[in-house]
């Protein structure tokens, strides 16, 4: 299994994944603290204030052990997670309105698209193949993460955004759908990944990746 293992490539993939998940967590924390500071609980990242230090958002399992195992097993897909601040969305909505809740939920998705686009700008001026590979991995991870989060049948940011938009216009259809799916999110994710429903993610993601690469 390890005969064809490329250690350098594995490191590049791992650090690209860290940029993806830790960068998203930092942006989300900043936006939450900037626009709804009194609704934020930072205890999960071991501090009273928002920090730009990535280590504060590093989860030993989700950012370390789990991705490392996937790399060693040479898994065809990679994902992970970070520590995140807790935001009381009921307080956000009551104090700042639905627009603020939508902004918070959108922040991570905007980060994914922004960092992918920024990486694509540097591909042609990359000084060596390793940096080129690193930038390509950043693009791949961020675009796939963005479209997973945007998928309207997964209980993630996209469906929550639709829920808040619906509630803003007096419709609870998407909010009820989210409440129904949320307890089973891992099972819903597996169903989408391993059935033709994955085209909801693959087609738009591959189109954007093809454009950026």
From TrEMBL:
<feature type="transmembrane region" description="Helical">
    <location>
        <begin position="177"/>
        <end position="197"/>
    </location>
</feature>
<feature type="transmembrane region" description="Helical">
    <location>
        <begin position="134"/>
        <end position="156"/>
    </location>
</feature>
<keyword id="KW-0472">Membrane</keyword>
<feature type="transmembrane region" description="Helical">
    <location>
        <begin position="12"/>
        <end position="33"/>
    </location>
</feature>
<keyword id="KW-1133">Transmembrane helix</keyword>
<protein>
    <submittedName>
        <fullName>Uncharacterized protein</fullName>
    </submittedName>
</protein>
<feature type="transmembrane region" description="Helical">
    <location>
        <begin position="61"/>
        <end position="81"/>
    </location>
</feature>
<feature type="transmembrane region" description="Helical">
    <location>
        <begin position="102"/>
        <end position="122"/>
    </location>
</feature>
<keyword id="KW-0812">Transmembrane</keyword>
<dbReference type="InterPro" id="IPR052348">
    <property type="entry name" value="Metallopeptidase_M50B"/>
</dbReference>
């Amino acid at each position: 299994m390890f005969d064809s293992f490329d250690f350098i490539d594995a490191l590049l993939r791992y650090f690209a994944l860290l940029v993806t998940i830790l960068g998203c967590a930092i942006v989300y924390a900043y936006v939450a603290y900037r626009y709804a500071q009194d609704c934020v609980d930072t205890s999960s990242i071991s501090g009273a204030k928002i920090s730009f230090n990535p280590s504060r958002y590093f989860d030993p399992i989700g950012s370390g052990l789990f991705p490392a195992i996937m790399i060693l097993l040479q898994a065809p897909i990679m994902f992970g997670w970070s520590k995140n601040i807790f935001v009381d969305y009921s307080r956000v909505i009551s104090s700042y309105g639905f627009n603020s809740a939508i902004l918070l939920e959108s922040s991570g998705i905007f980060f994914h698209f922004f960092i992918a686009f920024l990486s694509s700008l540097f591909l042609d001026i990359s000084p060596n193949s390793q940096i080129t590979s690193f930038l390509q991995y950043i693009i791949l991870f961020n675009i796939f993460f963005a479209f997973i989060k945007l998928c309207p049948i997964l209980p993630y940011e996209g469906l929550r955004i639709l829920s808040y938009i619906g509630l803003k216009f007096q419709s609870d259809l998407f909010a009820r759908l989210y409440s129904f799916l949320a307890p089973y999110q891992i099972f819903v994710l597996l169903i989408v990944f391993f059935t033709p429903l994955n085209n909801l993610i693959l087609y738009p993601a591959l189109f954007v990746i093809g454009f950026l690469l």
